[in-house]
Design a protein that fits this description.
Blueprint lengths: L2 E6 L5 E5 L16 E3 L10 H15 L14
Antiparallel strand pairs: 1-2, 1-3
């Protein structure tokens, strides 16, 4: 389900909503259904793999292996 940005034409509120194609969206402020779907900027490239790698390296230095599988643990 995608997240869309909306602009309410009645109260001028801007909000985002996680919607299914069959969902009727209304403004959370005034409950109006007179909405304009906005063009959203694409999300930036995720840094998650780098963050996870960095966090795991730090955890390994500190000796915390409780969240790792056997194949991920250092063999020292």
């Amino acid at each position: 389900m995608p997240i869309y940005d909306y602009h309410c034409l009645d109260c001028n509120a801007i909000f985002d909503k996680l919607v299914m194609s069959s969902t009727m969206v209304s403004c959370p402020e005034c409950k109006s259904e007179k909405l304009e779907k906005l063009v959203s900027k694409p999300a930036p490239r995720s840094l998650t793999p780098e963050i996870v790698s960095s966090a795991r390296a730090q955890a390994a230095k500190e000796g915390h292996f409780s969240n790792y599988g056997k194949s991920e643990r250092s063999r020292s």
